[in-house]
Amino acid sequence: MRSLILVVIVACCVLAMSASQQSSSSLAAVPATGPPVLKGLSGVLVVVEVIYSDAMRDGLTTAGIQTVAEERLKEAGIRTLTENECLATPGRPYLYVRVGALRGPDGLYSYDIDLSLNEEVYLARNRSVKVSGATTWTTTGMIGLSGTVNLPQVKDSVKENVDKFCADYTAANTKNGSD
Fold first, then answer.
1. Contact at 8 Å (CB) between 157 and 165?
2. What's the pLDDT tens digit per position in 68-119?
3. To the nearest 10°, the Cα dihedral for 75, 71, 68, 31?
């Protein structure tokens, strides 16, 4: 029981840190999101934040998350860009995947997942000012608990988030969604 309480406290701390990083790193607290911002997007580069070393040792790898995200995009008919293709694409769009997984003393992991589309944008008040890496689409954070044995299954939660992106992308770029 004591271990469970500790894991819940750690999970709350992870969420609080994640929320404070997001709010302090950007003045735009709630980016425009949903299908309209994805209209005309030709593809995305997938960028996965480095996974904490404990989680990597227990089977949750950056490469594994990258593969899962790219496979889901391809299955939905969304082109995944190479780094060079991304740099040559208007807006330089990249889908940023962040999985924070902290291991508690009892071996349980608390994790949270964030997914966002980031692009270069221009300020409406001054079109000569370009902002790189602005979030134009995002999912709400997903949190959970996992034992070490099930840690690689966190990828299923990543799939769910990527599926949300795919659904919005499809809605924006199909005949009915684009007219």
1. no
2. 999 999 999 999 999 999 999 999 999 999 999 999 999 899 999 999 999 9
3. -70
- Counting every residue written for the chain, the total comes to 179
Q: What is the 3-state secondary structure of 74-114?
A: HHCCCCECCHHHHHHCCCCCEEEEEEEEEECCCCCEEEEEE
d(CA 59, CA 72): 20
Cβ contact 47:37 at 8 Å: no
Write down the pTM of the prediction: 0.79
The partner residues of 144 in beta bridges, in order of sequence, read: 111
Burial of 105 (0-12, 13-18, 19+ CB in 10 A): exposed
Please give the single-letter amino acid code of residue 129.
V
Q: How far is C-alpha 130 from the chain's CA centre?
A: 23
